[in-house]
From TrEMBL:
<dbReference type="InterPro" id="IPR018510">
    <property type="entry name" value="DAP_epimerase_AS"/>
</dbReference>
<feature type="active site" description="Proton donor">
    <location>
        <position position="83"/>
    </location>
</feature>
<feature type="binding site">
    <location>
        <position position="74"/>
    </location>
    <ligand>
        <name>substrate</name>
    </ligand>
</feature>
<keyword id="KW-0413">Isomerase</keyword>
<feature type="binding site">
    <location>
        <position position="11"/>
    </location>
    <ligand>
        <name>substrate</name>
    </ligand>
</feature>
<keyword id="KW-0028">Amino-acid biosynthesis</keyword>
<feature type="binding site">
    <location>
        <position position="158"/>
    </location>
    <ligand>
        <name>substrate</name>
    </ligand>
</feature>
<feature type="site" description="Could be important to modulate the pK values of the two catalytic cysteine residues">
    <location>
        <position position="160"/>
    </location>
</feature>
<comment type="similarity">
    <text>Belongs to the diaminopimelate epimerase family.</text>
</comment>
<keyword id="KW-0457">Lysine biosynthesis</keyword>
<feature type="active site">
    <location>
        <position position="83"/>
    </location>
</feature>
<feature type="binding site">
    <location>
        <begin position="84"/>
        <end position="85"/>
    </location>
    <ligand>
        <name>substrate</name>
    </ligand>
</feature>
<feature type="active site" description="Proton acceptor">
    <location>
        <position position="218"/>
    </location>
</feature>
<feature type="site" description="Could be important to modulate the pK values of the two catalytic cysteine residues">
    <location>
        <position position="209"/>
    </location>
</feature>
<feature type="binding site">
    <location>
        <position position="191"/>
    </location>
    <ligand>
        <name>substrate</name>
    </ligand>
</feature>
<keyword id="KW-0963">Cytoplasm</keyword>
<feature type="binding site">
    <location>
        <begin position="209"/>
        <end position="210"/>
    </location>
    <ligand>
        <name>substrate</name>
    </ligand>
</feature>
């Protein structure tokens, strides 16, 4: 099994090349966990299986609109609908292999639908992340390290709860899974962003990701945080969102979509010893 490692603002991934869907057709949770294990495996926040849409056998709706499907898995082996940092790394990987052109826009199919990716002249990538689903129906409370905050639920194709805190130390070590109320608000789990303001149109966050734990960045989470900040602040063109692993720019488009701009890096390649 050959793999490539990459990251976007230090949210890191193992990429598995499977264009025809024949290399890893039954990629199971145990294999994903083994690859992502930081002591016994490659070590990563998740796995990106790189598959052509016409190799998908489950009636995927995007086969006419995108050539490539990002089969995303969290480090615990669960599937995720979307991964904002992952989709930049995925597109950068395809471009490095010459499978897509860096000119124009490349639509990437995900479980949350199509995400068009654009290559910027400075090497960064911009993704149309769709329209943030905001706010959710419930009054949400999140609790971490014995402290609680009210939170706003945001649907970025995957579920988020955004809580504004006084300092980024307030949620504590984030080793334990933060909890939320009501439990019914997120029946299949949630990514939780703890956010502080840094200045006008500028926030910073820490994130506890569903299926992973605390990570160094979350692209969908950055979009969710910017959407909640902007809904409180009033119309804005763009927000800078600082994460422990770098910085992302979230731009608000007139059609209600948000675009996320940030880096993508490939770092290592290797082979699993049978
Ligand atoms: N790090 C990602 C989000 C990955 C998926 C998430 N853990 C989930 O289960 O929804 C990002 O950059 O968006």
């Amino acid at each position: 099994m050959n793999w490539v490692k990459g990251h976007g603002t230090e949210n890191d991934f193992v990429l598995l090349h499977d264009p025809d869907g024949t290399e890893f057709p039954d990629l199971d949770a145990a294999t994903v966990r083994a690859l992502c294990d930081r002591r016994r495996g490659v070590g990563a926040d998740g796995v990106l299986r790189v598959v052509r849409t016409d190799a998908l056998t489950d009636g995927a709706p995007w086969v006419d609109e995108a050539d490539w499907f990002m089969d995303f898995r969290n480090a615990d082996g669960s599937t995720g609908e979307m991964c904002g940092n992952g989709v930049r790394v995925f597109a950068h990987y395809l471009a490095e292999l010459g499978l897509v052109s860096r000119t124009g826009t490349v639509p990437i199919a995900t479980r949350a639908g199509l995400r068009p990716v654009r290559f910027e002249a400075d090497g960064q990538l911009t993704v149309d992340m769709g329209v943030p689903g905001l706010p959710g129906p419930d009054d949400i409370k999140v609790t971490a390290s014995g402290r609680s905050w009210s939170a706003v639920s945001v649907d970025m194709g995957n579920p988020h709860a955004v809580a504004f805190v006084d300092t980024l130390d307030d949620p504590g070590a984030l080793v334990e899974q933060p909890t939320w109320e009501p439990p019914s608000a997120f029946p299949v789990g949630v990514n939780i962003e703890f956010v502080v303001r840094r200045g006008p149109q500028h926030v910073a966050l820490r994130v506890h990701e569903r299926g992973v734990g605390e990570t160094r960045s979350c692209g969908t989470g950055a979009c969710a945080a910017a959407a909640v900040a902007a809904s409180a602040d009033g119309p804005a063109e763009a927000y800078q969102v600082d994460v422990p692993g770098g910085s992302l720019t979230i731009t608000f488009l007139p059609n209600g979509h948000v675009e996320m701009t940030g880096p993508a890096v490939l770092t290592l390649r290797g082979e699993v010893v049978p």
